Amino acid sequence: MTALALLTDGSAVTVRELGPADVSALLELHRSLPVEDRYLRFFSTSPHQLEDFVERMVSPDEPTHVVLGAFRGDRLLGAASYVVVRETDFAEVALVVSHVEQAHGLGTLLLEHLASLARSRGVRRFTAEVLTINGRMLRVFTDMGFVVGIVPDREVMYVELVLQPDDRYLDAVSARESVADVASLSHVLRPGSVAVVGAGRSETSVGHAVLRNLVDGGFTGDLYAVNPHAKSVAGVDCYASIEELPEAPELAVLCVPAKAVPTVAEECGRRGVRALVVISSGVEPTALRNAVSAHGMRLVGPNCLGVSTSSNAVRMNATFSAHATLAGDIGLVTQSGGIAIGVQEELRRLGLGLSTLVSTGDKLDISSNDLLMWWDQDADTRFVVLYLESFGNPRKFSRLARQVSRSKPVLAIRAATSEAGQRAAASHTASTATPSVIRDALFRQAGVIAVDSVPELTDVLMALSWQPLPRGRSVAVLSNAGGLGVLAADACVREGLRMAELSVDTVKALSELLPVTASSCNPVDTTAVVDGQNFARCLDLIAADPAVDAVITVGVPTALGDPTEGVHRWDGKPVLAVRTGQTERLPDEVPCYAEPARAAAALARLVERAEWLARPAEFLGLDRVDLDTARGVVARRADGWLSPDEVVVLLKAFGLPVLGGTLVTTEDHAIAAQLAYDAPVALKAVADDLLHKSKAGGVELGIGDGPAVAEAFRAFRDRFGDTLRGVFVQPMAAGGRELLVGIATDEKFGPLVVTGLGGVDTDVIDDRAAALAPLSTTDADDLVHGFRAAGRVLAEKDAVAVREVLLRVAELATALPEVVELDINPLVVTETGCLVVDARVRVAPVHQADPFLRQLRTS
């Protein structure tokens, strides 16, 4: 393995496995340590023993010896190793870090990578011996975030780490990564000096435009231009090359021809540049990435609009936008330069501005995940906006977005996905897992507000920027035009909002204030004769009603006055205005929309955010889970569909309520099974490539005697011939509502849990809900009630039991990534519980990279 990763000071190191060629570097590292730091097994031995250890590590007879090293250039800064104790799942671990590198988190980084590699190879625990006097090393182990056991024994502390990446560990990794990432991004977003390489004299060149924007925007640091054919451009002195600059710029913006980019990037790295923004398009990615990685630089682009920031510390517009960025509190990251310009212009028109703009372009390095970590700690940013055409690491994105959303609204413009329709799949569950379904599930669970256009984005941003969140879904509509008020009420209902029932006192007060022809019930129609002053009084009366959570006003100007002039803020409750044909900002920071439907949609997004913030994010530890048994079932079959009896064992290992049954291969055994149950049974054929048994005639129900069992068995044998592997005999289940519960696995996003109508309804009605595993209790509740028919299906059934099934299935999906498809169909739901009547499971080898491992994008 080889990875590029960041230390806490923002510098980059290369982490890779060591071999015999690295023995001399290990010995040199060991010799460089003060005597008191030579404290751990293997690295505290003589040079000869150390060389023997490394040679054993790569020997074919000793595959369980692993050493990782961290390099800056060719210099080894630290190393971590483990040796598996024979015939166990734990390994002895050792760690050594160069004395001068011990304050930058290198030891912790090495241990994280070592633990991730060990887990992928079946190691479950690390043990280590630490001298009692070595408090720094002990803190490295205890701060990792794993469950730690420590046993003191005179001068030595015996430490054990359980390599289970639970929430505590992932939170600790995320916190360390955030510190390192923010430090490295400061070279991009808070640079003290910038050089524009390729700053052309022609005003029509991109390089000239970038330099001009930096000058006109009042860049607060030192600014340089690189152009071998000019003495100055846009009033900035030019130099012939990066090498000739009076200092190494912190950030270089490359606007040179695509073929020259890798060479110029290499020159920047040698000169000491810390970060690059590559505007050029058509760049060969591998050569550019190699140059950036070799020198530990951060990279935005290539093929991008650039970056800008309007913080109090640094003002910088390193883009080729036509207009300067309006300063504000919105952070924007986008893969599309056109989207960036469109959002900028629309926000400018409404008086909203950006704290940060990053156009990632081809996204070879810096991505939305990096920016989420930056904005999470950036006091200048109150709102986050994303335009993503692809996800490099969606599982990390989900965790980061969920964290940021707790304190700052995160909005995303949904973009087209690469696959247009449903992917081919053998199971009903897998056929649900289209890219858009998975993406929307990710956004919903992470609290990301999803929109479908730039106007919808700005509609929501206006409401979020200027109005409080509502306390509920009850809305009142106030209008001086009855028809528009009705349209507003209809739009609210379509968005899932409720029309508030005004109190008797409110209706009476409105009646006393309005003409006889007015309507004082919600939606309130003041008639066209009411002026702005009386319209304001009506707004106060309605907003004061405890039954009202939010107000939408709809006004059209008449010869008697403009009622919108009376619209104003109301403390604690959002007020949104509609003035036909105009989207604007009213004087009292009330957002005003061009039509009722846009106001209702914006208000609905505020309601959804308020509800998401109120959700408890609780992940339950489940009892009755026998993980060892479950792993044993999966390990016995490398690839393919499990047999029915294997499925039963697997599901029972996770505490699922399985009906069970008996797998038989002869008529006599089938008859014996029916007699043992002493009740009518169901017979289900088990045959090669037979997945949808009912459709293929592979199910016989309600068979109550031996002759009927034998007849059904013979019919299966005639129908399926040599492909028949057996018959699964089950007692008939009690009647109830039938649901589908399943797992589908995406290579990038991980497992998706699906539920919806089951039984024959699965093929007739496509009504399902989906969420990404792992599931919180609230995620499971959302799934239970997420499909359209849920209200009717579960009206008198045990929804709590369904929720527990979903949580257990999600636990199975998380613990056993080898289970790539699971269909429970039907899950029979009664007034007293649930029963898994039929299920099938497919396993396959998985080679998923650790999504939470700290490393920069290198491919």
* Radius of gyration, taken over Cα atoms and rounded to an integer in Å: 32 Å
Q: What shape does the CA trace take?
A: flat
| Low-pLDDT residue intervals, each spanning 5 or more residues | 38-49, 418-429
Q: Helix/strand-derived class?
A: alpha/beta
Mean pLDDT: 89
Question: Quick one: how many beta strands?
Answer: 40
DSSP helix fraction: 25-40%
The largest sheet is: 8 strands, mixed
Given the structure, what is the number of helices? 26
Percent strand equals: 15-25%
| End-to-end Cα distance | 13 Å
* Main β-sheet, spatial strand arrangement: 1-2-3-4-5-6-8-7
Task: Sum up the structure in keywords.
859 residues; eight-stranded mixed sheet; seven-stranded mixed sheet; alpha/beta; 25% strand; 40 strands
What would a concise description of this structure say?
The chain is α/β, with parallel strands linked by helices and 859 residues long. 34% of the residues lie in helices and 25% in strands.
Task: Chart the SSEs and their pairings.
Layout (H helix, E strand, L loop, with lengths): L1 E5 L5 E6 L5 H10 L14 H11 L7 E8 L2 E10 L5 E8 L8 H15 L4 E7 L3 H8 L4 E7 L2 E7 L4 H23 L3 E5 L8 H11 L5 E5 L5 E2 L2 E4 L11 E4 L6 H11 L3 E4 L6 H10 L3 E3 L5 E5 L4 E5 L7 E8 L2 H14 L3 E6 L8 H10 L5 E5 L6 H12 L4 E4 L14 H5 L2 H12 L2 E3 L2 H13 L7 E6 L2 H13 L3 E2 L4 H10 L10 E2 L6 H12 L6 E6 L19 E5 L4 E2 L5 E3 L2 H18 L13 H9 L4 E2 L2 H10 L8 E3 L2 H11 L3 E7 L11 E5 L2 H15 L3 E8 L5 E10 L3 E8 L3 H4 L3 E5 L4 H8 L5 H4 L5 H17 L3 E11 L4 E3 L2 E5 L16
Helix pairs in contact: 1-2, 5-10, 7-8, 9-14, 10-11, 11-13, 14-18, 15-18, 16-17, 19-20, 21-22, 24-26
